[in-house]
Design a protein that fits this description.
Number of strands: 2
Helix content: 25-40%
Strand content: 5-15%
Oligomer: single chain
Order of helices and strands: HHEE
Structural class: mainly alpha
Shape: globular
Strand order of the largest sheet: 1-2
Largest sheet: 2 strands, antiparallel
Distance between the termini: 12 Å
Radius of gyration: 12 Å
Length: 72
């Protein structure tokens, strides 16, 4: 899960740079798919324990709904 969160964080930064976005802009899962490896069935990354990812704005760290699944 933490590895996925790191990938999401990097994808957000790349998306922001490519699209002249600010720290307050928030990408969608669809926006980030071209920067990420896809999960099963071509979908957005999935937490291995079933949590839900909260992408957040460019200036925020992405989060998982499962406690303890977080970037340092």
């Amino acid at each position: 899960c933490v590895s996925n969160l790191k990938q999401i964080e990097l994808a957000k930064k790349m998306w922001a740079m490519d699209n002249n976005k600010k720290d307050t802009d928030t990408p969608t899962e669809q926006d980030l798919l071209k920067y990420l490896g896809r999960g099963p069935n071509g979908q957005f990354l999935v937490c291995p324990q079933g949590g839900t990812y909260i992408i957040g704005s460019v200036g925020e760290k992405p989060r998982c709904s499962i406690p303890g699944h977080a970037l340092p």
